[in-house]
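During the second half of the funding period, the structural biology subgroup turned its attention to how the target accommodates small molecules. The most pressing case was calcium ion, which had performed well in the primary screen but for which no bound structure existed. We therefore specified the complex as follows and requested a full 3D prediction, including the ligand pose.
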Amino acid sequence: MNWGVLDRYAKSLIKEAGQHIKHSFSTEIVVSSKSSANDLVTNIDREIEQFFIKRIHRDFPNHRIMGEEGFGDDIQSLDGVIWFLDPIDGTMNFVHQKRNFAISLGIYIDGIGMLGYVYDVMADDLYSAMKDEGAYLNDIRLPKLMDTTIEEAIVGVNASWVAPNRYVDHDPIIDLVNKCRGTRSYGSAALELIHVATGRVDVYMSMRLSPWDVAGGMIIANEVGAISSTMSGQQPGMLQSETFMVANASVHTQLLEEFIVLKK
Ligand code: 2AM
Ligand code: CA
């Protein structure tokens, strides 16, 4: 596989998809819900996923695609080349704010992340990385992260996890909120991974994310020295929804040991 060629191909596909999304604002966007009333999807999410899949299947017939909206392949193993695609990550932001959403894409071979992309469409900021070759914002290389401490950290956490919930004990999360410098929540897992990779935020955690939410951002975060894992400290499995944490390497272990108590 020539990863440089694939990188250029993926970037141009992403930019083209971004143009479609921008144009969609001058058309009628049809919003419906999926697993719950607050789990939104639009005709644009579906159209953009189909746009990617058609092109990838035409140009790389041996590659498989796992897409959020279900138009891709039925992926049961990580063998071969797999594209993990979220056509619009942060659909609620897309619908309500028309900003703060991203195209999220990760290309893996035999389970190893090779190419990662998060495209903030409205800002025209394309974050990308190739394994072992560093991470970039457009053409500018992202520096490695500097060490930090919990007391100086900004923690990306949704208020749902500070309230009683079925995934984690919320009392240790309250301790974390009190101990850290501040908290933020942006509503797009892919962009929150980018905020960690750029040092704007030092930690991001969520109790339920899917492979397409994190596949691209993890490769980018890894290239600047951030660590991604499940809340149990394992490598994300990439075949189902799981807990997730990405953090500056200097606080990752401490976060898991002191502040995360998973419910059985
Ligand atoms: P989405 O916008 O593509 O649905 C919101 O906090 C973040 O979590 C978004 O990245 C959102 O992705 C993701 N998310 C929301 N509901 C989810 C669910 N049921 N499973 C997995 N990820 C979800
Ligand atoms: Ca989505």
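Two results from this model are relevant to the next phase. The chain has two domains: 3-141, 150-258. The CA atoms of residues 81 and 257 lie 34 Å apart.
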